[in-house]
Amino acid sequence: MASEKLNMIEQFKNLDILKVDRRTFLKAVAALGATSFVSLYGNQLTEALAAFPETKVLWLHGAECTGCSESALNGSSPEFADALSELNISLVYHETLLAQQGIFVDGKLVGNSELNGEILLKELVAAGGYILVVEGSIGNGPDGTGKINMIGTHPFKKIYEDAAKNANAIIALGTCATYGGITVTDSDVKKYCDFMGVNQTENKKGGMNAVLGINKPVINLPGCPAHPDWFFLTVAAVLLGKIDLNNLEGVLDGDGRPKVFYPPQNTLHDNCPRRGFYDRGVLDERFAEGGCLWKVGCKAPYVHADCALRKWNNGTSLCMQAGGPCIACVEPIFPNGSMPFYVERESAGVLFGVNIGTVAALAIGAAVVAAGVHAVRRVNKEK
Amino acid sequence: MVKVTVDPLTRIEGHMKVSAEVDSSGLITSAQSGGMLFRGFERMLQGKDPRDASMHVARICGVCPISHSMTATNALDDLYGVAESVPQNALAVRNFIQAANTIASHATHIYILFGPDLANPRYRDVLTGSTLSLGATGQAVWNELLGRFAPLSYKLDGKAIPVGTSYLNAIPEKKRLQEAIALFGGKMPHQAVTVAGGVTCTPGLGEITKSAAIYLKVMEFVQNYTLGVPLDTWILNTAQAKSPDAAVKFVTDHLASLISKSSGNDFSRENGWKDVEFFAAFGSELVGEKILGLPASLRLDKLGGYQDPSKISFLSYGSFYDSTKDGYNPESPTGERFLTSGVVSGNLKFEDLDTTKITESIQCAFYEDDTPSRHPYDGTTVPVSKAEQINLEAGPTEKYSWLKAPRYNGIPAEVGPLARMIVAQDPLVTGLAKAFADNGMSPANVYTRVLARMQETAILAHKIVDFLNDIDPAKKFAEPLDLRAAKEGRGMGIWEAPRGALGHWISTDKSGKTKNYQAIVPSTWNLGPRDENGIPSPVEQALVGNAISGVDNVGGADYTNPVAILHVGRSYDPCVACAIHTIDATGKNAPRDYELF
To answer: Does B24 touch chain A (CB under 8 A)?
Structure first.
């Protein structure tokens, strides 16, 4: 057993994790178990970065629910604390986890960075040289003031601006940070709050970085929440130089996501555990029947993410396996384009804001045939 | 008078600010609590398919997402008129995932959010400094505090401190519990299965046995780290004790026996001092110093109490359905749920829950309305129109928070594990509460709040097996809906999140779409601002009279390390993202272009 594993380690040793095709990557991860996979690279990292012993990660929380932090803590292979130590990451700032808090006496910052988080943050930002992780969207409202979200007397917008300027790279974690996500759900207060993603808001490129004139390498890791593997393996790849921050184009898709986790050529539907029911036409019209969830609103045929292979919570399950229709939480259009969640797409008329016929026309590869079939049916119906 | 402000109060969910006026003797004379982020959640649901609420509002909070989707689902069960027919299986699955989420959330609070404050340098100074001269005992207690509860990336005097053993080992257990939830819920956070009429999953024996295996694994941690007596023994002698006095006596006897074998100042886990025992003895002056005769304690029982019992009450909506039969009553009458609903006054008198007595005040919150208070079914919320009106430095008679101020019969109510345990009359927690009251102290304080959270964790860890047992894979898991039932209807969902009473209220228009959606969440109850009568919220009351540096300010008050604010604020397990969201009855959104019927 041990020697078998060693052989596999040899075999995958030179794997360039974000440049191999998805199947090889997943095969490698599955065969080795992500722990050995990461520790394998972790060892290389320790050697390679001997002169650079520690990578600082500065984690900011904007308009968020802390679900992505919770999800990171759910990391299995690598587990959260292991990943930090094996990748030699120093989590220098994280509001939910660290000891410090902002402390003011008569309006003035007091104490030192061991107790006062505001002083710590100032010191860290001044020193620079960190990877900035952003969880939650960034509020621009009302009227561009950013006062919709205040932290320690400053709008979060300003805190983000300062931290982003001195960052080596930015990881937007979760759909709120990447595209606005749940915080940009259509409503009559949407404009008032004016929440933005780091580099993109819904389908519109630019995000808060365009407002602030920030030009830094950004990697988007959407998901509600983001999968812990997407985060830790991306960080690992960056640290190992497998992702070249100065040349992200080849590794990221048009929405800034690593293609290896959000494959452009495949959809979630391809590997759905209920796919067989779809193929046989067992399309449930009620919940808890065990069949395909298409008719109760599943969006998986339009969604690019490897959930069905990776699964969630230590490979336990995923939404569709538990009978819940995919709500497209990794897509820039989430949730406006995927609501109503429980209505069959064709009945909803539009798909992610685009006419369903247009999607069919754009559909490429075998993966989207499913969507195509439905679109064709719909087009026929319309005739 | 000095103004001490903690902003942001970290190690909570969301963005919160607490400021306190402190007099020259180092005592807090008044306090203000503010929520710092507005997301506008309920407005987002207007004009949408009501069924979307359950998945959408889960995103209010990633720490307790089950509670939000569960409460929304309860409101939808009520709206569609299916509450009485939700299959037993669905009730059991909902109970199981809620119980696992509550246990995980409590563990996160105890070990990762609250615990690190026990390693605050203030306790090093008190325990090992010259003021109290506690010698080897003080040093031993400090070593345990630091060794168990130090958080990630912690430094003292420039020296990196290793992560605490309890802290570090709790993370995998939290994760494991999330895996048990994912077996039924698909994923965590933000599970996919709670829908009006039941659940979408159809777990079989595989899922049930696997979750049982996970449970046993988690219990290993509880045995090794948390509790020094077998869980069954603990429950039998506390939660199921004959009287509150008997429960308290069991615990104090148990602690006394530990003390008798710790003459060499060995307070280690190996010597029987698991985290519950350690906290129970050293957390309280009354229990530790006065009853057990220990030379020192952290005196957390002298922080976070209420001075005026007429201005506080304890509220629980009731949690965990009777999953031995189909259906449930959405009104949650007294005694129906495993942890019953009810309201207990500041003087510890019980009354039945009456949800018509709930109102929310916007007097000191950044919203506009022509009347300061409304019942949630009629709730309106219009955020102040101009940016300059968001003045976070405003005083206590102005608008200073994004949180509204909920009241029960006009009185603020504490919600959360302490309130649930008092309302459900858990013998241990009620016994302790009475012991504090008999000694002229507030029954609610930082110590009882944390101990109640530990006790509830034990109770649920004991009960959760029954919920698993109630699942019969051969029977159905969901009842179909008649969507027409939602035309011009309304529904109420009341439930208990880990942090306390959670209510959602929905009403629909004649096309069956959501017209109004209102949520009143635990942290709004606990951490809101003042109301139109100037009555402060629970946390604002609980800070008054506290010694700013804790431990009776021994050695002098230190405004730069306001331990009292940190402990009291965090003792409520704040979830501020939850607490801020608004509703507007006007329904300005254009209806979406799809047909519901």
So the answer is: no
Q: What is the ipTM of this complex?
A: 0.92
Among B3, B28, B37, the strongest candidate for a mutation testing the A interface, having the largest count of A CBs within 10 A, is: B37
pLDDT tens-place values along chain B, 597 residues long = 999 999 888 888 777 899 999 999 999 999 999 887 777 777 889 899 999 999 999 898 888 899 999 999 999 999 999 999 999 999 999 999 999 999 999 999 999 999 999 999 999 999 999 999 999 999 999 999 999 999 988 999 999 999 999 998 998 899 999 999 999 999 999 999 999 999 999 999 999 999 999 999 999 999 999 999 999 999 999 999 999 999 999 999 999 999 999 989 999 999 999 999 999 999 999 999 999 999 999 999 999 999 999 999 999 999 999 999 999 999 999 999 999 999 999 999 999 999 999 999 999 999 899 898 998 878 777 888 888 888 878 899 999 998 899 999 999 999 999 999 999 999 999 999 999 999 999 999 999 999 999 999 999 999 999 999 999 999 999 999 999 999 999 999 999 999 999 999 999 999 999 998 888 889 999 999 999 999 999 999 999 999 999 999 999 999 999 999 999 999 999 887 655 543 222 222 222 223 333
Query: Known binder of ligand: residue A193?
Result: no
Contacts of A85 (CB under 8 A, 6+ apart): none
The full set of domain ranges for chain B reads 2-578
Question: Which amino acid does the sequence have at A56?
Answer: K
As given in the structure block, the two tokens for residue A106 are: 């008569």
**Contact residues for A204 (Cβ-Cβ < 8 A; gap 6+):** none
Tell which CATH architecture fits domain B2-578.
Orthogonal Bundle (1.10)
* A273 → chain B, closest CA residue: B186
Residues A137, A364: Cα–Cα separation, whole Å:
32
Say what the alpha-carbon torsion angle B199, B200, B202, B203 is, to the nearest 10 degrees.
Answer: -70
Indicate the residue of B61, B202, B561 with minimum beta-carbon distance to A288: B202
**Distance linking the first and last C-alpha atoms of chain A:** 61
Q: Residue B282, Cα to own-chain centre: how many angstroms?
A: 23
Fold of A263-348: Cytochrome-c3 Hydrogenase; Chain A, domain 2 (4.10.480)
Q: Is B582 on the interface with A (CB under 8 A)?
A: yes
Q: How many A×B Cβ pairs under 8 Å?
A: 317
Nearest CA to CA, how far is B145 from chain A (Å)? 14
Q: Does A307 appear as a known binding residue?
A: yes
Residue A10's Cβ-count burial label (10 Å; 0-12, 13-18, 19+) is exposed
Shortest distance, CA A118 to any CA of chain B (angstroms): 8
Instruction: Tell me the chain B residues in contact with residue A106 when contact means C-beta distances shorter than 8 Å.
Output: 2-3
Pick among 3.40.50.700, 3.30.200.100, 3.30.420.10, 1.20.1290.10: CATH of A2-239: 3.40.50.700
